[in-house]
Amino acid sequence: DYYLGDTRALHARVAAAQAAWTAADPGYAGVLAMLAFGLEEGGAYAHAEDAAFAALALEPRSIRAHHARAHVLEMQGRAAEGIRWMGERAAFWTGQGASSTHVWWHLALHHLELGNARHALAIYDRRIAAGASPALNELIDASALLWRLQLHGTDPGARWNALAGRWAPHAEDAYCAFNDLHAMMAFVGAGRRDLARRLIHAQQRRLVRGGTNAGMLWAVGLPASRSLAAYGEEDYDLAARLLRPLPEVSHRLGGSRAQHGLLGLTLRAAERLLAPPLAARAT
Question: Whole-prediction pTM value?
């Protein structure tokens, strides 16, 4: 459901199974954590928070429950509370591999929301980019954070080059539009037009061949990748035109609402760069 972007089923599937469980059953905290995430993605933030707290009462180290509440805090703009709560509980959710990396990513977003780019970069360096052999979802977190920092006005510098190098072996994968989009962020950030072209050509070949990814590519993946490439080439008009229809269908990429939000942020940045200076408008 998560990879297909089916937000209704994220909640409904777990809710349907929940009646067969009790708090005495081993693993019930995991069920509650899944329920919390599905509720959050459906916009039922108060119920999602209740379910996450119930899961943590049963299993304080449930990283999925921490993750679900991190999403609630992000979606409701409760950044200061998020920094405080996640900091107090860091020992419970740290040290659980790529899942922990993603929760650190959420903490970095809270810092960025409050304008603390320096703290977000420190989390990137120490917790997201530090691994010698990062998993793909860790590369996704790295791209998503650096792109947000770039839109925020903070230049990540050489970090882009290092990240693009890690994404380079996946430039022609084209089996998951969500992954492709984050690879494109790294290629654009590093100015690697060669890798960006390889990625788009691979997506075009995948469309011709068909397959499970073709629908995602057609609806969102290819126009999103092309929009980021245009943004990197400072063709903000093309970037904005490609991006405008995408927020409405961004769930087709899979992933979460927080992750989809990057398309809207990029659109707003492109439109700001398109706008004529105030003095010119006045005349």
Answer: 0.93
